[in-house]
Design goal:
Catalytic activity: ATP + protein L-histidine = ADP + protein N-phospho-L-histidine
Radius of gyration: 38 Å
Strand order of the largest sheet: 2-1-5-4-3
CATH architecture of the domain at 432-577: 2-Layer Sandwich
Largest sheet: 5 strands, antiparallel
Helix content: 40-55%
Number of strands: 12
Domain Signal transduction histidine kinase dimerisation/phosphoacceptor: 355-423
Number of helices: 22
Pfam families: HisKA
Keywords: Kinase, Transferase
Region (Disordered): 181-209
CATH topology of the domain at 432-577: Heat Shock Protein 90
């Protein structure tokens, strides 16, 4: 019994250089280009993987030259389809030499990229089945035809002076670089009327020996020349940079001024273009009870808490509350308008925040689905659920699973922040010793800071500081603050901590590290700490501190910055809160 082991023999050898890689590339496409036969599917898959690896070693022009060499027989539809998805020059060379049956073309062409189908249209030796499929898919020649009138003049030059051709944009004809330069030099003479310029031949009329390769070379030359011209002298388009324009945020308040008829003639900043010309009232009679501004304008009275609806740009549209004061001239006391302020109502601002939080939660829900899928598949590969997997792939899968877990943790933090800032959730109630939690966590963080010759100079009293929070909630809040500070601490820094109780609250004062003390907006997403073994989350130190502030406010406390200090204040557990509920008493009695 004879069996073909040529493919296994080629794969057994490793290509150590570019020359050996080219040789092995030729061997693989020669073996894979034969008619598909029975064999080991894993061996064929390994051959395609080796081709991908060799592609990184061999430049694109070299690979296109190898594929375009005479003598190859691409009779395998799988290889033809694989090359069809490669670089355009490689795909064109492979499709020009593919030798498939009509049934194979009929099945393959719909699965090829649109670009590859266009290359096939230039072949004149395709079976009728392939031509019929191309017609059904609407694939036409890539060459741009000349207008009918111009084509007639080209075919019959004796009638060149017959009817005048209306001015029309000339067709784009791709030609090599030297042809473009010659055409540009002769154009002024043609315009001067010396001799009519000779029309170039249509791009579709090419020698049969060149075919696809000549077309690809002309396209690449045209693109290269156009890119060089753009790089040297690129005009700025009228709409350039429009996509990069910043999105205008919703405006919560602005100052304005009106004329004597109640028409806005001045407003501050960017709001002016959106509101100038808006008439605040159209009523000037004495019976103006329905319109507060009309009544105030009529009687020249100040305006307090009047409601008004602005329409127009999304940044200003909606309901507003207007406070305005009449203005009079100093000389004769003549009324000449109002000066005031538009502001959103608290209820409207709260509704906007709730709507934004709902949109954020919906977005996070949509993002979790693909991340969960990536994490699940990577864990399947890493744990070898479906069979043995190389260690390299297992390591990559483990890295992907870890990254997915970090992304999901970031999503959870975003969701928690949105819910806390809108009051959708509250921290779990209970009883916890905040002083004991701080002492324990400071001791844990000292082991991380010691290799950097950094430390926490903590002053924590032994007296318990009971909070009306569950143990887990208090630990998360303390760790979010302390770990963020420790992660931002530089080498040799000493951070002072002071925990003490004052009245009915406990206060934790922490000195800011130098990297955070230099940040103007401490609670913004731009505030980031240096790389450290302690991570403050994927969104940085500013986001972590903002989340800690939201947790503190939900617990009835506050997290604020005082110059170079960060102060966390939380209410202590009062004796009334510490008393057990009747249900707890009954439960203990029953137990």
């Amino acid at each position: 019994m004879h069996f073909d082991d040529r493919l296994a023999t080629v794969l057994r050898n490793r290509a150590t250089g570019e020359r050996a890689g080219k040789t092995q590339f030729r061997q693989l496409i020669d073996l894979l280009g034969e008619r598909p036969q029975a064999g080991d599917p894993a061996l064929k898959a390994a051959a395609y993987l080796r081709l991908i690896a060799l592609a990184e070693m061999i430049p694109v022009p070299e690979r296109a030259k190898i594929v375009g060499e005479t003598g190859w027989r691409f009779r395998n539809p799988e290889l033809v389809r694989w090359f069809g998805e490669a670089h355009p020059s490689i795909a064109a060379a492979a499709l020009y030499r593919a030798e498939l049956s009509g049934a194979e073309w009929e099945e393959l062409i719909p699965r090829l990229p649109i670009r590859a189908r266009g290359f096939l249209r230039h072949r004149r030796d395709l079976p009728m089945e392939a031509v019929r499929v191309l017609d059904q898919l609407g694939v036409q020649d890539r060459a741009l035809p000349l207008p009918d009138m111009v084509q007639m003049l080209v075919d019959d030059p004796d009638e060149a002076a017959a009817p005048e051709i209306p001015e029309a944009p000339e067709p784009l004809i791709l030609s090599p670089a030297n042809d473009i330069e010659v055409a540009s030099e002769e154009e002024p003479e043609s315009q001067a009327g010396s001799e009519p310029a000779q029309e170039p031949e249509p791009a579709a009329k090419m020698p049969d020996g060149e075919g696809i390769r000549a077309l690809v070379e002309r396209i690449e030359t045209f693109k290269r020349n156009r890119a060089e011209a753009t790089a040297n002298d690129a005009p700025s388009l009228p709409m350039a940079g429009l996509d990069a324009a910043p999105v205008r945020k919703r405006i919560d308040a602005f100052i304005f001024g009106t004329d004597s008829e109640g028409r806005i003639d001045w407003a501050e900043g960017d709001v002016a273009a959106m509101v100038i010309g808006t008439t605040l009232t159209a009523r000037h009679d004495a019976d103006a009870r329905e319109d507060d501004f009309a009544s105030a304008l009529l009687h020249r009275r100040p305006l307090r808490g009047a409601r008004f609806t602005l329409s127009g740009a999304p940044a200003i549209s909606g309901d507003w509350i207007v406070d305005a004061t009449p203005r009079f001239t100093r000389g004769d006391g003549r009324f000449f308008g109002y000066a005031g302020r538009f502001r959103r109502s608290a209820g409207m601002a709260e509704a906007d925040r709730n709507a934004g939080a709902d949109r954020l939660r919906q977005l996070l829900h949509e993002l979790r689905t693909p991340v969960n899928a990536m994490q699940g598949y990577s864990e399947v590969i890493q744990q070898q659920v479906f069979g043995p997997t190389p260690h390299e792939y297992r390591a990559l899968a483990a890295s992907i699973a870890g990254d997915s877990a970090r992304i999901l943790a970031g999503f959870d933090e975003l969701d928690r922040l949105a819910k806390l800032e809108t009051g959708a959730i509250d921290l779990e109630a209970g009883a916890s010793d905040f002083a004991g939690i701080v002492r324990t966590q400071v001791k844990q963080l000292q082991s991380v800071l010691s290799p950097r010759v950094a430390r926490f100079d903590a002053t924590v009293h032994e007296v318990a500081a009971l909070l009306p929070l569950a143990q887990q909630e208090a630990e998360m809040l303390a760790w979010r603050v302390l770990a963020t500070l420790a992660g931002a601490t530089g080498a040799g820094e000493a951070i002072k901590l002071d925990l003490k109780t004052e009245g009915d609250e406990v206060s934790l004062r922490a000195q800011l590290p130098a990297s955070l003390a230099a940040t103007e907006e401490l609670f913004s997403s731009e505030a980031r700490s240096a790389s450290s073994t302690l991570s403050s989350g994927i969104f940085g130190a500013g986001f972590s501190l903002r989340l800690a502030r939201a947790e503190a406010r939900s617990a009835g406390g506050e997290l604020v910055r005082d110059d170079k200090w960060l102060i966390l204040s939380l209410p202590l557990l009062t004796p009334e809160d510490a008393l057990p509920s009747p249900n707890d008493i009954n439960g203990r009695a029953a137990g």
